[in-house]
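User: I've been going back and forth on whether these two constructs are worth ordering. Before I decide, could you fold them both?

Assistant: Sure. I'll take them in the order you sent them. The first construct and its structure tokens:
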Amino acid sequence: MTHITIITVGSRGDIQPYVPLGMGLQAAGYRVRIATHDNFETFVRAHGLDFAPLGGDPRELIRSEAGQEWLESRSNPVAFVRGLRRLTRDVSDQMVTKTMHATEDTDVIVSSVLGLFAAVHWAEKRRTPLVVAALQPIQDTRYVTNSVFPLPPRWLPFQGTYNRLSYTLMRYLLWVVFGGQMNQIRQERLGLPRTTLRAWFPNASTPVLYGFSRHVIPRPPDWGPNARICGYWFLEEEAGWQPPPDLLDFLEAGPPPVYIGFGSMNTRDPEATLELVLDAVRQAGQRAVLLKGWGGISDAQLGDDVYSVDAVPHAWLFPRMAAVVHHGGAGTTAAGLRAGVPSILIPFFADQYFWAERVRALGVGPRPIPRSRLTAARLADAIRHAVSDRAMRQNAAAFGERIRAEDGVAAAVEAFQQLVPVAVR
């Protein structure tokens, strides 16, 4: 039986899509292990997959001073890469070692983009086929900007050239910041020769499976045959899960509320963020479901029109909302699109700006509000717009139907079987 190890690192939104992908591959007859941070072991094993620890706790990293500075890099790719280096400086070597153990008996390595920092070297060392499973576009194209780069203004000429250069520049930035460390690890730990900028990254012959919808990002015509846009990798609602009775009571007590949550995006002043959000809800005259994450929240602070939750499956909650307000992570954006309700995006940094612009361009959400410019008045205006704009609500509902009609996991499994000849069950 062919053994596949999926390597992925990051927050919950960076891990979760790879669980249904792994489940799909396992249902097709492969043996699948997910290698990721230790705190996700219970989550991975609960879905019937093997687990290998990579160490590190992304929650602690994000809460650190370096993590907060990284979140404040906004749409600046230079600051993003520098922040990533500072954030991972003390765990990079550990990750390489743990990736070695995780892939010892592996026939095929499947890696997320961040996982490639270790996976690409072990695939070379062991001559193991490597497949990239990406949640954002990573291959050169004239038609889509690199997701960490600012989108070009509409007046800029030669936008196709800008788009293609954005991928070249991102590789160069990563090489400048990480290349020396990676070559040291290759020589001293793996016994591999030094590599170059061009050779360090997967080439055109590397299979790349994309976990997003062609309706959100149409397939660029200048991508090669090894790039497959599969559709989103959704984790379906767990069997036996039941919502809290008081949440059901809240939903039934009035019109559909607005969801507000920023995932793992912590802020330096959580109390001020909470007050801003509650003020915006009051100004908009809406009820709200608020994801806990800004510290202690008391019922006295919330009042009768706001309900706070620790965690509720997006697939169950979002379709019951009038609109969803979130940070624009790839997974949360996908869940909002699938739900068929308008999305209001508050991007903090990196690819969140990219997804926020896609939501606006698709006509399923108002103009995004960068976190650095967020005020109660602006958020209230965006909520009123999303809830009252009939055309936007119709667009969101129709778009949700198209997303729900796709089976991204099945498409990814089929593409995997076509692109990886060694993967014989």
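The second construct, handled the same way:
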Amino acid sequence: MRACKIIVGLFGLLWVLAIALFLIGQFGLFGQDADPLAGVFLVPLGLPWNRFIDIAPEALWPWLAALAPLINLALLSMICRLFGGRSTD
């Protein structure tokens, strides 16, 4: 159970860091130049859900890419709740 919480927490931390880098690069915060590849760290965190983003209007693509890892985080949390409490002894 403890390992499961660590994995979910680490995934959440990586997601928050990736969103921070996305916002800094997208909007040029803190004197950083605007970078079109600012969301590159969100791609592996949001797979496979970010493959369906092109169905939505193009104006929503960056925001849907930022939210796609939330689905994986929710799934990880649900799996931990369902199977994390069981012991094998």
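Notes on the second construct follow. Helices lie at 2-27, 42-46, 61-83. The chain has a mean pLDDT of 89.
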